[in-house]
């Protein structure tokens, strides 16, 4: 197999997770990095022993010695860079969310179709070992038909600020940033049913709560307390064609007693809780059973999941296997997220199969 020569665009916080995983894969040569911030790009290149350093992604894409790219930039540049990369003949791993708008998502899909290149959406949670295990149970029919799911990620104080808090660059707040992970995971486990309607609410009540003292939380490098144009929290009810439904609630700021995560799917023969650890619930001989699969890490293992995500991408670049996170799944999610934002704005249910559909 040919070594896959990788370029990485966007050397911020998440880039390390990509680079560490690439560095650990013997089929990869890390070839170049790019960031608008030259010093950051140089620091990253030095840390990983990478020769190519760019501040304009077009220069990186013009390098014929690069086969594939990881896109780890702000959400508002995902579409532009993905399309340019595909058209330059590169395979693409694009961080979540795929992009900001449905039009952008469709343009990316068109570029994938026209170029025949790989585009993998960065749905890292799909690659987690506990999800791979659960998927086997679901695919074997052990949970029966899944008809309900719950996707909840509550941060009481956790607006990262910087571009995350700038709607123009991010596309929104917790819904598009962390909601995308958990909605996608439930939807994937449910067998990707077609959504027919969404009813959503977004709230801007608490702001980024930068007034809070004596309580630390993750802040982007360019945190600016005066900048915050995104929602504090969002909730939604999503209905699917097969009658199944998904309840979502996510927040950056909320008067909650503690941070919490709940991701769960429920079927006719059994259910599964995914956070904080995989646990399967079923019934046998008139008895309810809670089954705890014995895994090295029964919860979400961040480092290991990135390793699996990157290894999957490298395999695809070498022509091995089927894309677990294809562009269509990114398009479907952007449609869904945008419909939730629209529902909240217009204060009504939005149909995805009828007159509201784009
Ligand atoms: N999969 C996950 O769990 C996960 C976690 C965090 C972030 N992300 C995603 O990764 C992406 C980056 O997030 P982050 O936390 O690393 O942000 P960050 O602000 O730490 O880093 C982003 C970097 O991209 C650079 N950049 C922006 N536009 C650019 C352009 N046009 N060309 C070159 N460089 C550019 C910035 O200068 C910055 O260094 C986002 O899309 C985010 O949603 C995913």
Automatic annotation (TrEMBL):
Residues 4-123 form the Gfo/Idh/MocA-like oxidoreductase N-terminal domain. Pfam families: GFO_IDH_MocA, GFO_IDH_MocA_C. SUPFAM superfamilies: Glyceraldehyde-3-phosphate dehydrogenase-like, C-terminal domain, NAD(P)-binding Rossmann-fold domains. Residues 135-351 form the Gfo/Idh/MocA-like oxidoreductase C-terminal domain. InterPro entries: Gfo/Idh/MocA-like_OxRdtase_C, Gfo/Idh/MocA-like_OxRdtase_N, Gfo/Idh/MocA_Oxidoreductase, NAD(P)-bd_dom_sf. PANTHER family: D-GLUCOSIDE 3-DEHYDROGENASE, UDP-N-ACETYL-2-AMINO-2-DEOXY-D-GLUCURONATE OXIDASE. This is Gfo/Idh/MocA family oxidoreductase.
């Amino acid at each position: 197999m040919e070594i896959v020569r990788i370029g990485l665009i966007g050397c911020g916080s998440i880039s390390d997770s990509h680079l560490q995983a690439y560095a650990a894969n013997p089929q990869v040569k890390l070839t170049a990095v790019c960031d608008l911030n030259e010093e950051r790009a140089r620091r990253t290149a030095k840390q990983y022993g990478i020769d190519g350093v760019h501040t304009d992604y077009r220069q990186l894409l013009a390098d014929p010695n690069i086969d594939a790219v990881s896109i780890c930039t702000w959400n508002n540049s995902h579409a532009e860079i993905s399309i340019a990369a595909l058209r330059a003949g590169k395979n693409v791993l694009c961080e979540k969310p795929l992009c900001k708008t449905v039009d952008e998502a469709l343009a990316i899909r068109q570029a994938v179709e026209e170029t025949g290149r790989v585009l993998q959406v960065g749905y890292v949670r799909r690659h987690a070992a506990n999800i791979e295990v659960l998927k086997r149970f679901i695919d074997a029919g052990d949970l029966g038909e899944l008809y309900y799911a719950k996707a909840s990620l509550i941060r009481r104080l956790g607006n990262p600020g910087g571009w995350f808090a700038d709607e123009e660059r991010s596309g929104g707040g917790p819904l598009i940033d962390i909601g995308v992970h958990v909605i996608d995971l439930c939807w994937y486990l449910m067998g990707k049913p077609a959504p027919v309607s969404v009813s959503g609410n977004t709230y801007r009540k608490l702001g980024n709560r930068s007034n809070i003292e004596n309580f630390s939380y993750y802040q982007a490098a360019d945190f600016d307390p005066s900048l915050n144009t995104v929602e504090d929290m969002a909730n939604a009810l999503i209905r699917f064609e097969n009658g199944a439904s998904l309840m979502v609630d996510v927040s950056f700021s909320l008067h909650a007693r503690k941070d919490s995560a709940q991701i769960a799917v429920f079927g006719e023969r059994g259910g599964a809780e995914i956070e904080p650890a995989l646990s399967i619930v079923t019934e046998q001989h008139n008895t309810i059973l809670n089954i705890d699969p014995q895994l090295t890490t029964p919860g979400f293992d961040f480092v290991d999941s990135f390793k699996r995500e990157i290894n999957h991408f490298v395999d695809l670049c070498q022509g091995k296997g089927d894309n677990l996170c294809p562009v269509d799944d990114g398009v479907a999610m952007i449609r869904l997220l945008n419909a939730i934002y629209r529902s909240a704005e217009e204060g009504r249910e939005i149909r995805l199969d009828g007159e509201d559909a784009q």
